[in-house]
Design brief:
3 helices, globular, mainly alpha
Length: 77
Amino acid sequence: MTPGRRITGDDRTKCRTDFAQLYHAGYPIRRIARETNRSYGFVRQILTEANVTFRTRGRNGEPSTPGAANNPKTTDR
């Protein structure tokens, strides 16, 4: 794919399939974007068109902030 070129038709359908396979294999959106010379926004849009269910932020569904699960905020002082 040539960066900056509009992707339509069969090429776009192939992108949907390829990107969805990579995402389901565990690749983050940023890595797919980097390896295909596409923007984060483009990759996310293609995955949305492919009806991909996005993972939660963080690693394997864990909180993205280290220790966040073990340190709940309290209002008591």
